């Protein structure tokens, strides 16, 4: 089956995308849809189609696997993202990174602002930039506002790794990739991160590769 035409109306394109079945194709860096920003969601999809699209994002995120996925990453320029993190990590990683389980949730029209001035730098990857990771300094705590898929307001403070996830996914909706915020001297192949830089924090990598942490 052919891929959806970018010129078709939004709902029609999403119907065509969902008709492909299974996990949706993830758009890779270099595709303009990851850079143009998104359209605020304002009822462009009927409730049934929105529910099907959200479920497709969830299935695709799990299959990748990842802990978040934004609509532009499947070629749809709508301000919608999903997150979920079972956080299956050792205790020392949990403590160092503040990585705690997050239930599945849908972020509609999200925006964030920092809470306080603290920042933290950790290796981060992206499903749209497969094979690579880099250290990104992000706000340690943020206030996220938006709605859920039912139109109910979201106003929640996230800290630690969950704060990183919501910043990463909201950035996608603004046409930003994590590499735009990364310390590029830290850029490492996934295999290198696993072999050399798998410590709970990236201090060793910072010394060896010559970059500073916040």
Automatic annotation (TrEMBL):
Its EC number is 3.5.1.88. It is an enzyme of class 3 (hydrolase). Keywords: Hydrolase, Iron, Metal-binding, Protein biosynthesis. Binds 1 Fe(2+) ion. Transmembrane segments: none annotated. Coiled coil: none annotated. The keyword ATP-binding does not apply. It catalyses: N-terminal N-formyl-L-methionyl-[peptide] + H2O = N-terminal L-methionyl-[peptide] + formate. It holds the Pfam family Pep_deformylase. GO terms for biological process: translation. It comes from the Bacteria. Belongs to the polypeptide deformylase family. Removes the formyl group from the N-terminal Met of newly synthesized proteins. Requires at least a dipeptide for an efficient rate of reaction. N-terminal L-methionine is a prerequisite for activity but the enzyme has broad specificity at other positions. This is Peptide deformylase. The gene is def1.
């Amino acid at each position: 089956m052919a891929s959806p035409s970018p010129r078709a109306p939004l709902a029609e394109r999403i119907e065509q995308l969902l008709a492909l079945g299974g996990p949706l194709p993830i758009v890779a860096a270099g595709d303009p849809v990851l850079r143009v920003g998104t359209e605020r969601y304002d009822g462009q999809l009927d409730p049934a189609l929105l529910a099907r699209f959200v479920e497709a994002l969830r299935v695709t995120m799990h299959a990748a696997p990842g802990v978040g996925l934004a609509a532009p990453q499947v070629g749809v320029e709508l301000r919608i993202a999903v997150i979920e993190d079972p956080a299956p990590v050792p205790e020392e990683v949990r403590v160092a990174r503040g990585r705690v389980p997050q239930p599945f949730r849908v972020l509609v029209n999200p925006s964030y602002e920092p809470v306080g001035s603290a920042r933290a730098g950790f290796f981060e990857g992206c499903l749209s930039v497969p094979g690579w990771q880099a250290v990104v300094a992000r706000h340690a705590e943020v206030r996220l506002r938006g709605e859920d898929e039912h139109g109910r307001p979201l106003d929640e403070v996230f800290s630690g790794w969950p704060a990183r996830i919501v910043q990463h996914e909201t950035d996608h909706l603004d046409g930003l990739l994590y590499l735009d915020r990364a310390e590029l001297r830290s850029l490492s192949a996934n295999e290198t991160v696993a072999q050399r830089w798998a410590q709970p924090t990236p201090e060793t990598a910072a010394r060896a590769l010559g970059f500073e942490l916040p």
